[in-house]
């Protein structure tokens, strides 16, 4: 798929690839090969993370007004939860567990405005819309997965790491630990200096059947396959920036890559250079999403 602005939140659902396009303000779905493109939702305040409740209703992050929206059976978008009191920057990605609880992150600071970096919270939104701080002091929580044994893995884009939590009964996060480390957390707070200290800017991610994570390295122009501990065992370089990824296709072995020349808002708003690419891989999709 091409002629798009900036893609995030790819998901394989009901035999189709779904993706958010920031600056056309649309959620799209398409057939496995990118044909039969459909507009699934229009989100004026910029869509990002996608997930589904157990009854099949779509959840979509509305970034700029920090709301989680829910698509009803008639297609209407309604407010599932207002997260604005809890965030320090744009709302971002999410993962939904099998109970319908959404774990949602935000930037934590004004990324596009060049504000200093700072930690933020990982939030949990229960099926009734109740918002709870699930974890504090997270460095730009981004792509997240839930393993089949109930472990939540969260990419900390500005933290040089992937952090793991056990999901206890009721959705409480426990046993916080580092699942993969790529370097020390940055000591600088000025954004350009901080990014220079980031070895892997872990953005979107997905889990495979061997227990490895495919991670989009937002500053490295690549998707990497990472084992527990941080060993990089494979990489894909499409010749442009990679900002999210998801395994899907009929056999779960098609890796979709959200690509664009960069992540700068002014440039991406003015152009239609984002492309959803795919590559065949050996290990199939696992976990959620």
From TrEMBL:
Gene3D superfamilies for the chain: TolB, C-terminal domain (2.120.10.30)
Entry-linked InterPro entries: 6-blade_b-propeller_TolB-like (IPR011042), SGL (IPR013658), SMP-30 (IPR005511), SMP-30/CGR1_Lactonase (IPR051262)
Domain SMP-30/Gluconolactonase/LRE-like region: 8-260
SUPFAM superfamilies in alphabetical order: Calcium-dependent phosphotriesterase
Keywords tagged on the record: Hydrolase
Presence of the UniProt keyword Nuclease in the record: no
UniProt-listed Pfam families: SGL
Family designation: Belongs to the SMP-30/CGR1 family.
PANTHER family the UniProt entry points to: LACTONASE DRP35, LIPOPROTEIN-RELATED
Full protein name: SMP-30/gluconolactonase/LRE family protein
Organism whose genome encodes this protein: Prauserella alba
